[in-house]
Write a structure and sequence with these properties.
Number of strands of chain B: 4
Shape of chain B: rod-shaped
Helix content of chain B: 40-55%
CATH architecture of chain A: Up-down Bundle
Structural class of chain A: mainly alpha
CATH superfamily of chain A: Formate dehydrogenase/DMSO reductase domain
CATH topology of chain A: Formate dehydrogenase/DMSO reductase fold
Distance between the termini of chain A: 10 Å
CATH class of chain A: Mainly Alpha
Strand order of the largest sheet of chain B: 2-3-1-4
Radius of gyration of chain A: 23 Å
CATH architecture of the largest domain in chain B: 2-Layer Sandwich
Largest interface: A-B, 65 and 66 residues
Radius of gyration of chain B: 26 Å
Oligomer: heterodimer
CATH topology of the largest domain in chain B: Alpha-Beta Plaits
Number of domains of chain B: 2
Strand content of chain B: 5-15%
Shape of chain A: globular
CATH class of the largest domain in chain B: Alpha Beta
Number of strands of chain A: 0
Strand content of chain A: under 5%
Number of domains of chain A: 1
Largest sheet of chain B: 4 strands, antiparallel
Order of helices and strands of chain A: HHHHHHHHHHHHHHHH
Chain lengths: 457, 172
């Protein structure tokens, strides 16, 4: 058995047995949904439906119904795409990078963080597929023979890299998540008494029986998938950043973009994980498994990534001044003092100042403060992408193309629709899937359970 | 001689391991172990060999890298060379930096999916498969050792299992 130092705080609180872990995690799946679940689910699915209506309107009429115009041709669509993809990154970081570093605290949160990744990438995919204007021709993005167009796709283009990166990221995350779910589905299957539910969970569990050979293979697959997902998570947002960095626009053409985007992605992703998990632990009474220690660790990641983002902002400013290129300097003056100065100010406050509050132990161990700050960070990170895209495009080289951008009700509808979709899917996940990887938690019970630690096991 | 199936059910993974050591020490074979989570260290005791799955993943990864290289060479260099942004189109090698991201993505895609699919086929995990765990509690909190022993050995196997802390011993 793995031994853990006495100094380390226990990860599983209370006097829990293996059976208690199963009971606690499967209770929401076996029981009925409460009133609050239905209220939030109705709200989320209504917003989602409105989003679908706006999407249909866009497809039927064309993307002229968006606020994007001749100068600002990328606006809310790509802002939302980058925001959602960024949010997804925390899930992979928690499940893959923390697995490689043998961080046991990830076991309580990896399942829901991975679910969040998958739903966030689905939301992001809506924007990229729609922003092409004629989404029914999106198969042109794939390398298909010449009959479909006049040429092959251009493999020199970061936009094509993005197609490959995002689709690989989505499918690998899905496989990673599902493989981890199989043993837990088997647990639910073996406890279900209703015939239909039993049948469904039997199908979902792929006939898992927990043989030792299967466990060995399972662990090896998880480890290798983690090893593969780790460079993947860094590559995806690096490639997203090259969509901007390889362009010749001042304010976009910067080598700092890949690391700065990756740090920002992890930063916003952890904030979203915290928002979801703080609600989830309360609603499903999972306080014994997701305790203050977990929240504190996540807040520490937020301080680090938030500081990297802060340093990146300042480096950008310094470099634009130091490079001495007039256009580059103007791009940043325009961001800070131009027509969208308020977005820049909001971004700086939410992303640079607010995470620094977590240096205080009182704040980073306070659930309410964490919840509020996690939402503040998500707002800030949305504005970061907005500041990169809109103020830059509304003041480019040619003053004759300078104009303002105003979102239409369709832009707002699709964006809120994706938030609705994200929460609809997450609520369904929380209702029917085991929200914590209970087979993993059981494996650390004896080394990290508070009662076992007291007994000096 | 007729064989009987014995289920030694334990509440604790360490006790199960001790039980397995004892049974193997008696010269008997542990047919299978079912557990709610991976019991580290049980494999060498019951004679489960190390899996070769990571090697298959490496091979799938190499295949993915080669496929992507061939695809981009064929499309960008051989079939329809196009000058894009002054980037050379007459040789793959010179234009290679632009092809790194997709080569990488294809490597990861093939390695991950290939390995997962091999795992599912090798362990025969797919929708519609009937689970083989003999006791439903093994996916919850019990650890089960499955033995097939001769009638003659039954007595000493039962006592060995009990001695090492088995909470139940079922003979079928």
């Amino acid at each position: 058995m793995h031994q853990e130092s006495e100094i380390r705080k226990p990860l599983i609180l209370g006097n829990k047995s293996y059976k208690d872990i199963t009971d606690d995690i499967i209770r929401p799946v076996q029981g009925k949904a409460n009133k609050y679940w239905w209220i939030v689910f109705t709200l989320a699915s209504a917003t989602f439906t409105w989003g679908i209506i706006c999407l249909c309107y866009t497809i039927g009429t064309g993307i002229g119904v968006w606020g994007s115009n001749n100068g600002v041709d990328w606006a809310w669509d790509i802002t939302n795409f980058v925001w959602w993809i960024g949010i997804g990154h925390a899930g992979t970081l928690i499940s893959a990078v923390l697995l490689l570093f043998r961080q046991k605290w990830r076991m309580a949160i990896n399942r829901s963080a991975e679910a969040m990744t998958i739903f966030a990438v689905m939301c992001a995919a809506i924007f990229v597929t729609m922003h092409t204007g004629r989404p029914w021709l999106d198969y042109w993005l794939f390398p298909l023979p010449n009959q479909f167009g006049s040429l092959w796709i251009n493999f020199n283009s970061p936009l094509v890299w993005d197609v490959f990166a995002v689709s690989t990221y989505f499918s690998v995350s899905l496989v990673f998540w599902y493989t981890g779910l199989i043993p837990d589905f088997a647990t639910i299957r073996d406890r279900m008494t209703k015939p239909l539910a039993k049948k469904i969970y039997t199908l979902l569990s792929f006939g898992w029986s927990g043989r030792s050979k299967d466990w060995t293979r399972f662990e090896e697959v998880s480890l290798v998938l983690a090893g593969l997902s780790t460079p993947l998570v860094f590559s995806v947002h690096s490639i997203v950043s090259t969509d901007f960095a390889t362009a010749v626009l001042p304010g976009w053409h910067a080598t700092i973009f890949p690391p700065y985007f990756v740090a920002g992605a992890v930063f916003s992703g952890f904030a979203m994980v915290l928002t979801l998990i703080l609600i989830m632990r309360k609603v499903f009474s999972l306080e014994s498994y997701i305790n203050i220690k977990h929240i504190e660790y996540m807040n520490i990641v937020i301080i680090i990534t938030g500081s990297i983002v802060g340093v990146a902002y300042l480096t950008e400013l310094f470099m634009s001044w130091y490079a001495g290129v007039e256009y580059e300097q103007y791009a940043f003056i325009n961001r800070a003092t131009g027509p969208y100065w308020w977005a820049y100010a909001l971004m700086m406050t939410c992303n640079v100042i607010s995470p620094q509050l977590f240096w205080f132990k009182k704040i980073r161990t306070s659930l309410i403060a964490t919840f509020i700050l996690s939402i503040v960070v998500n707002i800030g990170m949305w504005f970061e992408r907005f500041v990169i895209i809109v103020p830059t495009l509304c003041r480019t080289y040619l003053p004759s193309t300078w104009n303002m951008y105003h979102p239409t009700f369709v832009d707002i509808g699709i964006f809120t629709g994706t938030i609705g979709m994200f929460f609809t899917f997450f609520l369904l996940f929380a209702r029917f899937f085991p929200v914590i990887a209970q087979s993993e938690l059981k494996s650390i019970l004896k080394s990290s359970g508070s009662e076992y630690k007291k007994q000096g096991h | 001689m007729s064989k009987v199936t014995v289920h030694g059910i334990y509440d604790d993974d360490e006790q199960l391991k001790n039980g397995a050591i004892k049974i193997v020490g008696m010269g008997l074979h542990v047919k299978e172990v079912f557990s709610p989570f991976p019991v580290h260290g049980i494999d060498p005791i019951i004679g489960v060999k190390r899996t070769l799955l990571p090697i298959t993943s490496f091979i799938y990864g190499c295949t993915g890298a080669l496929l992507a290289t061939w695809m981009m060479w064929y499309m960008m260099i051989s079939d329809w060379p196009t000058e894009i942004g002054g980037k050379p189109n007459f040789t793959y090698l010179v234009n290679w930096p632009a092809f790194i991201p997709i080569t990488f993505e294809s490597t990861v895609l093939c390695a991950a999916h290939g390995m997962a699919i091999t795992f599912f086929i090798r362990s025969w995990l797919m929708p519609g498969v009937t689970p083989k765990n003999p006791d439903l509690r093994t996916t919850d909190n019990k650890f089960l050792m499955l033995l097939e022993v001769n009638q003659d050995d039954l007595g000493r196997v039962q006592s060995a299992l009990k001695e090492t802390g088995a909470s139940e011993v079922n003979v079928q």
